[in-house]
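> call design_seq(struct)
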């Protein structure tokens, strides 16, 4: 047996990308390992850190798209807006920052293409691990993975839970009111249905509950606001091989995410005093869904050239509910302002907003990678049609 190391110093694809395997993911340093994906991306050229673990790529804001086993996810996944992805479920990832293919669509400045772990062909039929961690500021974490299977069936399950008394970046060095906890569960099942068909089912969910960090004045007033975010994800994918050079991929997926802000206590209309929430009392309930279908046909021709054509349709049902009032009657709000009515001095009204929408996205794309001798062309064309109200 001859073992050789071959290192290519010249990329064969014109896109700007960086591949990261599971060995590098396991070694990534982070205060909480189940939130290490942010640290991994921040080590990639072009990404800059912001507050509370958030990051931006080349000055963009929220234009990063995750693709998990071919399923696009363009929602925020930072801990302040949603729930972070658990890196223990990732087998490999590719960060694409230039020359993004037409199949990804939208207007992402970067695409993080993730392949999750599978239990197919697990040596011995079963493998697993359990980890525990602790750090300063009352930080604790526990996690596990379990996988098993044979040649025709495999499963992989992972879970993680963490708690910290310094969950976000505090606005005061004394770290007032900053406890938070996370939990995440992921499961993937694979079936080999003969020589030409494979089926994959993925399920995942997560929850984050954290305090809203206080200023010293808010801590003295007894302010106790909290935010809870949840998400649930389901996807089913089928791949059929027509031949060694032709295949068809079909995927259906759904996602439901919520974000709730709870005040210290409720306020009634005509409230005589502001209560402990200062300077604004607020309650929020936001719900966002992703219901989609993907179909793609793949053709390989020549030695290395490929062609891909596909369609995508996604519905984004959402519901927004907000209530707020100013809990101060001093000169913060000008009596001539229309907001004055929502202060105790102006009558103590509660401003309420409720709205539901169901935007839809319908897309079609075609792309090809052409190898013409020493010339490589990556070509693509995509058409997107948005409708705001369903």
């Amino acid at each position: 047996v001859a073992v050789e190391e071959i290192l290519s110093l010249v990329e064969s694809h014109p896109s700007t990308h960086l591949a990261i395997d599971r060995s590098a993911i396991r070694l990534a340093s982070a205060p909480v390992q189940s939130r290490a994906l942010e640290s991994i991306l921040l080590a990639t050229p072009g990404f800059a850190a912001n507050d509370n673990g958030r990051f931006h790529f080349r000055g963009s804001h929220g234009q990063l798209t995750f693709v998990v086993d071919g399923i696009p996810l363009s929602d925020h996944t930072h801990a302040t807006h949603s729930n972070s992805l658990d890196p223990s479920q990732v087998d490999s990832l590719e960060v694409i920052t230039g020359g993004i293919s037409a199949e990804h669509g939208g207007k992402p400045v970067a695409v993080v293409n993730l392949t999750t772990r599978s239990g197919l062909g697990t040596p011995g039929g079963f493998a697993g691990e359990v980890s525990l961690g602790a750090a300063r500021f009352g930080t604790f974490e526990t996690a596990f993975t379990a996988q098993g299977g044979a040649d025709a069936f495999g499963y992989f399950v992972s879970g993680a839970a963490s708690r910290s008394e310094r969950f976000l970046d505090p606005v005061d060095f004394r770290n007032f009111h900053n406890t938070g906890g996370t939990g995440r569960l992921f499961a993937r099942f694979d079936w080999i249905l003969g020589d030409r068909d494979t089926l994959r089912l993925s399920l995942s969910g997560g929850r984050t509950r954290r305090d809203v960090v206080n200023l010293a004045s808010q801590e003295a007033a007894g302010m106790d606001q909290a935010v809870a975010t949840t998400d649930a994800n389901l996807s089913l994918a089928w791949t059929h091989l027509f031949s060694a050079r032709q295949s068809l991929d079909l995927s259906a997926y759904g996602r439901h995410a919520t974000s709730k802000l709870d005040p210290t206590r409720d306020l009634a209309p005509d409230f005589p005093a502001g209560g402990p929430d200062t300077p604004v009392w607020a309650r929020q309930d936001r719900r966002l869904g992703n219901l989609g279908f993907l179909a793609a046909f793949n053709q390989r021709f020549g030695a290395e050239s490929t062609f891909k054509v596909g369609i995508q349709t996604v519905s984004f049902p959402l519901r927004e509910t907000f209530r707020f009032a100013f809990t101060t009657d001093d000169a913060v709000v000008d009596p001539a302002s229309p907001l004055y009515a929502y202060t105790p001095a102006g009558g103590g009204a509660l401003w309420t907003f409720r709205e539901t929408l169901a935007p839809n996205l319908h897309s079609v794309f075609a792309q090809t990678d052409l190898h013409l001798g020493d010339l490589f062309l990556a070509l693509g064309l995509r058409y997107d049609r948005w409708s705001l109200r369903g």
